[in-house]
Amino acid sequence: MRLYYAPDTCSLSPHIVLRELALEFELVKVDNRSKRTADGRDFLTINPKGYVAALELDDGEVLTEGPAIVQYLADLKAENGLAPRAGTWERVRLQEWLNFITSEIHAGSALLFNSSLPDEVKSIYREKLFRRFNFLEDQLNGKTYLMGSAFSVADAYLFTVLGWCKFFAIDLQGWPVLSAYMAGIHARPAVQAALRAEASD
């Protein structure tokens, strides 16, 4: 498998999951501006949407959209427990979390990267994001991970998008439970390995 990625983007999430599962894969860097891969290909021929992550399978199929990719990967090694079994109530809860992260945290944060937005508009989006952080603070209180005591693909995704706070001068210390949650995930060996690989590539 090949994972097409760019540093400091949502492709970190499936990268973490690949390493958590100890799956064999090739990491291919994409320049988000030029849409060229590190080996000189036109990324738009791989993913016409033009953004990472994209996972190219051994048979040539390409899967896009982070929440779909991480669930696919988790099911390749279901015994590792990164996603509850398909068809269970717990799997629906996982999908609920993935949808919340993608629509509220990922999309809500991505808007702040837009340098053309006036500060007063960004302030509105920041306040909305902070309300979502308050919700997460409450939901994680007394739990190690989103789904309880076990790390899941939803945690890889939430860690990834909350990591963007550093670009917006948002200090998660204002949410102590959330801050401790982030520190715990950051310490995981697979997370450390993914971060090192992306920093050195």
Structural class, judged by helices and strands?
alpha+beta
Strand content: 5-15%
Which series of helices and strands comes N to C? Answer: EHEEEEHHHHHH
Instruction: Supply Rg.
Output: 17 Å
Mean pLDDT: 96
N/C terminus separation: 18 Å
Strand order of the largest sheet: 3-2-1-4-5
What is the number of beta strands? 5
Could you describe the largest sheet, including whether it forms a barrel? 5 strands, mixed
Helical region count? Answer: 7
Determine the fraction of residues in helical runs and give it as a percent range: 40-55%
What characteristic shape results from the CA principal axes?
A: globular
- Can you tell me the residue ranges where pLDDT is under 50 for at least 5 consecutive residues? none
Protein described:
This protein is of the alpha+beta class and 201 residues long. The protein contains seven helices and five strands; from the N terminus they run βαββββαααααα. A five-stranded mixed β-sheet has the order 3-2-1-4-5, with helices on one face. Helix 1 crosses helix 7, helix 3 (89-110) packs antiparallel against helix 4 (119-140) and helix 4 (119-140) packs across helix 6. The longest helix has 22 residues, at 89-110. It is globular. The model has no long low-confidence stretch (mean pLDDT 96).
